[in-house]
Amino acid sequence: MKAIFLSCNQALFEEVRQIMEKLGVRGYTALEELIGCGTATGEPHLGDTTWPTMNSALLAVVENEKCTPFMTALKELDAANPQLGLRAFWWEVGGTL
């Protein structure tokens, strides 16, 4: 099993959920309103009058065979929307209740 964490501009969040539905990625926790700033490029997303945009984040635990297709689709979504920003990371997890 893999845990996938992603953070993205709120404008991309519904597209992320559509990708998940298409790939059968279920079992996630999402936070729809977060502030943040990228490490190298892009504008901060702080939800204030100067930087009004916000981020969303999601944590999903997926089967190993779904990780690569999901990460690939996220990379394609990010490439198609370079000004919005999307970052995703995965790591191995074990043991579930």
Tag the structure with descriptive keywords:
4-stranded antiparallel sheet, 4 strands, globular, 97 residues, 2 helices, alpha+beta
Explain what you see.
By secondary structure, this protein is of the alpha+beta class. It has a 4-stranded antiparallel beta sheet with strand order 2-3-1-4. Helix 1 runs antiparallel to helix 2. The model has no long low-confidence stretch (mean pLDDT 90).
Set down the secondary structure blueprint.
Elements: E1 2-9, H1 10-23, E2 28-34, E3 55-62, H2 64-80, E4 86-92
Antiparallel strand pairs: 1-3, 1-4, 2-3
Helix pairs in contact: 1-2
In short:
This protein has 2 helices and 4 strands. With 97 residues, the chain is of the alpha+beta class.
Q: Ranges with pLDDT <50 over ≥5 residues?
A: none
**Tally of helical segments:** 2
**How is the main sheet built?**
4 strands, antiparallel
- Helix-strand string: EHEEHE
Instruction: Give me the oligomer status.
Output: single chain
Q: What value does the Rg take, in angstroms?
A: 14 Å
Cα separation of the termini: 13 Å
* Portion in strands: 25-35%
